[in-house]
Amino acid sequence: KVLLAEMDYVYESGGAPATGTRYFSDTRYRTTGSDSPPHRAYADRIVKFPSLLTAISAERLAGGADMRLGSLALGNADGGLDYLLTLIVDGQEVRTYVGGEDWPRADFRLVRTATVQRIESAEDDTILNVMLLDQRFLLDASILGDVVATGQDAGKSQAVIYGVVLNHEPLVKDSSTTFEYHVVSNY
Predict the structure, then answer these.
(1) Please, are residues 17 and 88 in contact by the beta-carbon 8 Å criterion?
(2) What is the DSSP letter of 87?
(3) How far apart are the first and last CA of the chain?
(4) What residues contact residue 58 under an 8 Å CB cut-off, 6+ apart?
(5) Spatial separation of the C-alpha atoms in residues 103 and 100, rounded to whole Å
(6) Where are the alpha helices (DSSP H) in the chain?
(7) 3-state class (DSSP) for residue 18
């Protein structure tokens, strides 16, 4: 089997933010000529693929589960990945895939999509650990819902919120009421 990781990062291009992607594998892998993009080389750097641990708490059986996502360990003995420590990767996506050595890239299966929390260098600098968060852990991220059709908030999106609300202003849903948040969660 072949393990792939595609990590997004942000950079400036012509004075505006742009997104790029870095490509890693646990063995030498290159996309086929019929893949898009063709002949893309994945750097042979994955030392440890992220693990996923889920457990249902005996105290919180009402739909609650604890979830932990491991880190993506990248080999850096030659210092060739030192540049990752200067890239803007925090909050960007990492997609991990599994497939066969001779498979076209399109046939690989998505294992999970995670978000980069940070990148840490091991004490001896031979490993870079990409610390990951499962996207369900982004408790302070707003997920926008339907657009308000009428009233003073017409054209604004209603927020569907998980966890603590720090980054989205409440909307007036009905002018006869006060500002309110609508919580759709059993946590």
Answers:
(1) no
(2) S
(3) 38
(4) none
(5) 5
(6) none
(7) strand
Confidence band (pLDDT; 50, 70, 90) for 185? Answer: very low
Whole-number pLDDT of residue 70: 81
The structure's pTM equals 0.66
Place of tokens 């031979």: 126
CA distances to 70, 97, 162, 164, 167 from 171, in Å = 37, 39, 16, 16, 13
In angstroms, the CA 146 to CA 61 distance is 31
pLDDT value of residue 126: 94
55 vs 65: CA distance, rounded Å = 6
Q: Which two tokens stand for residue 164?
A: 């603590």
Under 8 Å between Cβ of 22 and 84: yes
CA 4 – CA 45 distance, rounded (Å): 10
What is the rounded average pLDDT for all residues in the chain? 78
pLDDT in tens, 39-64: 999 999 999 988 766 666 566 555 55
| Distance between CA atoms of residues 135 and 143, nearest Å | 12
Parallel, antiparallel or unpaired: strands 93-99 and 66-69: unpaired
β-partners of residue 142 are: 161
- Residue that the structure tokens 């650990």 belong to: 129
Percent of the chain as helix, strand, coil, to the nearest 5? 5, 45, 50
